[in-house]
DNA sequence: AGCTATATGTCGCAG
DNA sequence: CTGCGACGTATAGCT
């Protein structure tokens, strides 16, 4: 191998014994036995582990899948999350959600890493044919993401300035419960007529109209059969089909960016 | 630094010149300049790049976000996908979908990697305060995932044995178009009455009922106002509220596992 | 643990 | 490209 003159095993955390290390423990083209010990130690420590190599993947749970041999990046997180990434796509080709338990073992002479969880019972197994690199990182990240432009922001903006929906709109409640679910903003118009406002942060299709329709119908039942109720969909824009569905249902649309 | 007696720079692909290398090019605690050259070369080659270090993240696009300093794993894929992973959660804390263009540069003395895309216009920028490890992997993976237990499987099972829905059910079309969207399975019952069948691979809530309702309503309009049409939701199970909504709408439920 | 709705959803497919 | 719905959706909030 071309890189033979470099040490294959760079793992040496057992020597340093630091508690707040920032150095990764990385093995390059390790044996499967070396990799196993490395991964076991990392899992024990609560490190984030990355593996790269040729592997197969078995998943069994809500559905079932098998992925034949190929080079992939595998990430094991201390919360049990497991990700298998190929060279393309944002979504992992296989994964395990957080909450499960990680494990690693040798199957014959091959490293197998996996994550198991219950409710629902799901199993993900990654078996390596060839290991290119195995790393362990000590990672604690308390920083929180600050995010703007959500539906929640849109709601706050409307509550601060209800005229954004229409002049005279008066919000009375958010998350008002109905038999069909919670109304985003419940209120009255300038005439005192009840209004159901459904918010979407992006262009809406038929699903959003159906949602609004369910709330308005349920509210009609909850109040009086003949109560006049206006349903308003607030979103940046609406598709043609959704616009037609709004019209058929006697619902309204107000354009508002998040 | 504890590992100073190991070579900091293991990158040496420029020496080997192999086309089908399986060795990763990995830098450990590189300078930002070294890392930049490494990442640029990797992007040029179409490699998958992983970076680990302390960084901040700026996102601007469909929404906006800022993430303060912390240790994270950053993945750059040759298709432009960018992922920023913390120690927990399946979803990246920040990301950029595929299709954009990757870039890397020094901002002052710091490495900044990013991905830009259009329609929608979105930008993701990751700036490193400290670099722990930078790797590049040559990865081509033609293998396809085989997945069982999808809605498509459920549909096929019903088409093979329509009695699974009910004795005498006769499928006439899949994906039949209505003004409200496509019906999963369109057919007739033993009496010849039109049936709209909506399939779900898992337990359903109000949204699925709304969807079925839209299709049935649209079909009533499309055919005749007074045409008798049965709407059937086929799923493993149904929530209480959804069951009530089905009853109120005169719709039916058939339990079937995927 | 189950229910409901949001998401920078992502993804695939059809028009 | 947009529209539309599925997804092993994940995730958060609430009961």
Q: What's the CATH topology name of the largest domain in chain A?
A: Protein Yojf, Chain: A
What is the 3D form of chain A?
elongated
**CA-atom Rg of chain A in angstroms:** 27 Å
Q: Structural class from helices and strands of chain A?
A: alpha+beta
Assembly type of the chains comes to: homodimer
The second-level CATH architecture of the largest domain in chain A is Distorted Sandwich
Largest sheet of chain A: 8 strands, antiparallel
Helix content of chain A: 10-25%
- Uncertain spans of chain A, ≥5 residues at pLDDT below 50? 1-22
Domain Endonuclease NucS N-terminal PH-like (chains A, B): 48-143
Protein name (chains A, B): Endonuclease NucS
Organism (chains A, B): Haladaptatus paucihalophilus DX253
Main location (chains A, B): cytoplasm
Characterize the structure shown.
Two copies of one chain form a homodimer. Chain A is an alpha+beta fold. Chain A has two domains: 13-137, Protein Yojf, Chain: A, CATH 2.70.180.20; 151-255, Trna Endonuclease, Chain: A, domain 1, CATH 3.40.1350.10. The first copy, chain A, is 21% helix and 41% strand. Chain A has helices at residues 13-16, 32-45, 151-160, 206-222, 240-248, and strands at 25-28, 48-60, 64-76, 82-85, 94-96, 101-107, 110-117, 122-137, 145-148, 170-178, 181-188, 194-199, 229-235, 252-255. In chain A, the strands form two sheets. In chain A, strands 1, 2, 3, 4, 5, 6, 7 and 8 form an eight-stranded antiparallel sheet that branches. A five-stranded mixed sheet of chain A has the order 10-11-12-13-14, sandwiched between helices. In chain A, a hairpin with a 2-residue loop joins strand 6 and strand 7. In chain A, helix 4 (206-222) packs parallel to helix 5 (240-248). Chains A and B meet through strand 2, strand 3, strand 8, strand 9 and helix 4 of A and strand 2, strand 3, strand 8, strand 9 and helix 4 of B. The structure holds a DNA duplex (15 and 15 nucleotides). Chains A, B: One of its GO terms (molecular function) is DNA binding.
């Amino acid at each position: 191998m071309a890189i033979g003159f470099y040490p294959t095993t760079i793992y040496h955390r057992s020597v340093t014994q630091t508690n707040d290390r920032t150095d990764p423990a990385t093995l390059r083209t390790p044996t499967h036995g070396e990799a196993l010990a490395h991964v076991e130690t990392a899992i024990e420590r609560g490190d984030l582990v990355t593996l790269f190599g040729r592997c197969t993947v078995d998943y069994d749970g809500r559905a079932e899948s098998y992925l034949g041999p190929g080079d992939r990046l595998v990430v094991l997180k201390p919360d049990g999350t497991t990700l298998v990434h190929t060279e393309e796509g944002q979504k992992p080709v296989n994964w395990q959600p957080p909450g499960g338990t990680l494990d690693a073992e040798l199957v014959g002479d091959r490293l197998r890493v996996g994550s198991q969880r219950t409710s629902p019972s799901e199993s993900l197994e990654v078996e390596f044919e060839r290991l290119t690199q195995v790393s362990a990182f000590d990672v604690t990240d308390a920083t929180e993401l600050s995010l703007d432009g959500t539906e929640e922001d849109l709601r706050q903006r409307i509550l601060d300035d209800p005229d954004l929906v229409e002049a005279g709109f008066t919000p009375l409640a958010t998350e008002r419960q109905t038999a069909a679910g919670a109304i985003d903003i419940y209120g009255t118009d300038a005439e005192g007529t009840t209004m159901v406002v459904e918010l979407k942060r992006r262009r809406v299709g038929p699903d959003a109209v159906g949602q609004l329709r369910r709330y308005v119908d349920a509210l009609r039942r909850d109040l009086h059969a003949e109560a006049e109720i206006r349903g308003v969909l607030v979103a940046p824009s609406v598709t043609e089909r959704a616009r037609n569905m709004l019209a058929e249902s006697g619902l309204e649309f107000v354009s508002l960016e998040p």
